[in-house]
Amino acid sequence: MEKSALLGWMQRQYELSAGLMTKAISATHLVKERRPFGRIVRPAPGSVLACPVIAAYDPDPDYFFHWARDSAVVMDALRVLIERGAIGPESIRRFEDYVAFGLKLLDLDGAAYLRELGDFRSEVEPFFRQYVRDDEDLRAIVGDRVQGEPRFNPDGTLDILKWSRPQHDGPASRALTLMRVLPLVEARAPHMKGSLARLLDADLSFTLRHWREPSYDIWEEEPGFHYYTRLVQHAALAEGATWHEACGDFERARAESEAAQELRVALAAYWSEPEGVLRSRLSSDAGTGKDLDIAVVLAVIHARRRDGPHSILDPKVLATLARLEDLFASLYAINRGCGSDRAPAMGRYAGDRYYSGGAYYFSTLGAAELYYRLATAVAADADAVTADHEPFLTRLLPTALEGEHERLREALVARGDAFMATVATYAPATGELAEQFDQATGAPSSAKDLAWSHAAFITAFGSRREAVEARGT
Fold first, then answer.
1. Which of 53, 68, 197, 293 is the most buried (most CB within 10 A)?
2. Per-residue model confidence as pLDDT tens digits over 275-326
3. Burial class (CB in 10 A: 0-12, 13-18, 19+), 114
4. Cβ atoms < 10 Å from Cβ of 414
5. What is the tens place of the pLDDT at every residue in 164-189?
6. 27-51 pLDDT, tens per residue?
7. What is the C-alpha separation between 306 and 313, in angstroms, rounded?
């Protein structure tokens, strides 16, 4: 695809993604009937649907839930749209609803919900009763246990279905989003600063109390200590310490700063010198294929550490991205013979079996965003590039460390564009971005219109604009 055509497509997709993603926020006009479970769900204001397309594994998955992690990613993308003027400033109201919804979730009580449900199991079809949580499990969901829930019904009630619990990345991810939106709130909606602060304090408190505990990974497949969870926890606590200090709560700031430092030390254990990658997990199952996982790249762009270990300037992060690119270039049929103007479509990890087990839009866009952010970092500080970066950067430009920083910045943006070109190749004209696109055919797979996919496009395109503006072109 020629550059002018690609730029035109990116602008159109940006506008389409803005519209499609915001349809998942406060989708109060939708009604979801989970007939086998005898439930009817109507989204409340402030809820964020992972996917607004109603499905029931027929064959598309039922994503009609408010996931803590996904909603934080989506609302962070909404912030980008507002800051860039892509949507009107009145959209700040969506954050007010989001915060109010989050505060209501904190008050959920599993025992009270069971009393409200009554004899709900009699309404569940016999075959599906095996998928329903038992009373003891539901009754225990109160206080801190609420924030360990990975997802909720978008009407603000507890999810009665068995799932991978607990997950501890959600509160940390939401805390990061809330801290990033705080300047917008102070400037345009100061009346909601108090409620935002209460929710932010609750998320940071949960993270501070529970970061030492294992939880399920972002793919919701296995419990343990995972790179993604620990990095967003580290970032949330480090930034939370700065926020609490500014608020005058020096004791909390000190506790969060100390925990962030402990997490930074713990994160060093994820580097595998023999493999030359940051592993996605610490487990006894090394070598299963899940060690090399796009979750590492997503963690880095979501945590947004400015420099140092686990930032986009970390040579270990870049080495991991290079290995992931090589993995998927050889693994997926759609990546063979794609030419120099396209980068490989990126998946999650080798051996993925979920739906097509193929490429993910947000994985491919995450790689693009990392390149754009790296270009911006190089533009801001030419000295940021050191000899440690040479193995990665010379893949793009053989003389990257010989005073050719302008060419390097251009090469980094071009590489990000190559990932965008891959997305353009497999994105439908309607602008809908599914969760996956098939590794052999490129056809959409899994959820048909994933809010996270659109959020990933919005933040990647926003990062491209920053990179271009930083270069002064």
1. 293
2. 999 999 987 454 557 899 999 999 999 999 999 999 999 999 999 999 999 9
3. middle
4. 17
5. 999 999 999 999 999 999 999 999 99
6. 999 999 999 999 999 999 999 999 9
7. 8
Say which DSSP state 121 is in: G
End-to-end CA distance of the chain: 21
DSSP string, 127-138: GGGGGBPPHHHH
Give the other-Cβ count within 10 Å of 136's Cβ: 8
3-state class (DSSP) for residue 254: helix
Spans of all domains in the chain: 304-473
Model pLDDT, residue 271: 97
Rounded to whole angstroms, the Cα distance separating 381 from 415 reads: 20
* Cis peptide bond N-terminal to 59, omega within 30: yes
d(CA 138, CA 140): 5
Residue 270: CA count within 13 A, CB half-sphere: 29
CB 427 within 8 A of CB 12: no
SS (H, E, C) 107-120: CCEHHHHHHHHCCH
Pairing of strands 277-278, 271-272: antiparallel
